[in-house]
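Run: sequence + MTE -> complex structure.
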Amino acid sequence: MPFIHRRPAWAIDEKLATPEAVFLNRRTILAGMGIAAASAGLLPRKVLAESDPTADLYPAKPNDAYRLDRSLTPEEINANYNNFYEYGTYKEIAQEAQQLKTRPWQIEIGGMVAKPMTLEFDELVRKFPLETRLYRHRCVEAWSMTIPWSGFPLKSLVEAVEPQSSAKFVRFETFLDPDMAPGQNNFLYPWPYVEGLTIAEAMNELPLLVTGAYDKPLAKQFGAPIRLAVPWKYGFKSIKSIRKISFVAERPVGLWEAIQPSEYGFWANVNPQVPHPRWSQAQERVLHTGEIVPTLLFNGYGEQVAHLYKGMDPATLYM
Ligand code: MTE
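>> structure
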């Protein structure tokens, strides 16, 4: 694959690329960052690569429009540092998340659409051509990763179901099954996990319905079998393990907004100028290098999305 010399707005300095010595020494780095438990709990590769009825779909064709001249977060690090509250409120949920049963997995797509569909994930994933995109992922907690996601554009699905003009938002919902996800017994959270986008956001080129990562079907802790990646928004918008997609007139209230609306808003666009009420969003820690780098407006994807928010108060971009 040719190396991309063009430096798009979202490209990060080459000096941030991880030298091989750092890769080799990643356990030490993890420990140094105070997350020794993550390295202690590293999953064997066979758990991540377990046999899957969609394995033949990977690696998916790279889409060279979405590349980064920055090193990718090594799979072992990403796969052992996750937010998936259905399996615990800490980062080392990878083993717990293996309880997630991803078959059968029915997905219901409906609401204000001309062509609703309810189908098995294995059928849905073969309806649209899969592609691989390298995306940045910026958590509201001020850390970031760089991930090779595979999937298909949300836009393709929206077009397929033909939303009615009354539909203004897309609402996404995760499964609800406390027996399979012990974290859902935690009554402090209003399960199931819900998130939403406006129709215009959903029709943007960037949101990806992710079905794979690192050239294979999605590992359970990443939100198998299908999750969202919305790279210009804080990570909590990228809902995992989606069961239901509804086209609605009312703005959906996400799980985090329901709990703490002053801290986690609907828009949640990455904005270094609008601090979280309890910490600055000006910088972020690159998870696999430990480096602190400036955070970019819209996580560097302004070219693709800034027009969606013209005329809005910059503070609203966050909220
Ligand atoms: N989706 C569900 N269902 N449950 C969750 O707890 N956490 C969110 C988001 N999607 C979450 C979720 C948050 S806060 C982030 S930062 C990302 O998933 C984390 O994705 P990752 O574990 O792949 O990095």
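>> summary
The chain is about 15% helix and 20% strand. The two ends are 40 Å apart (CA to CA).
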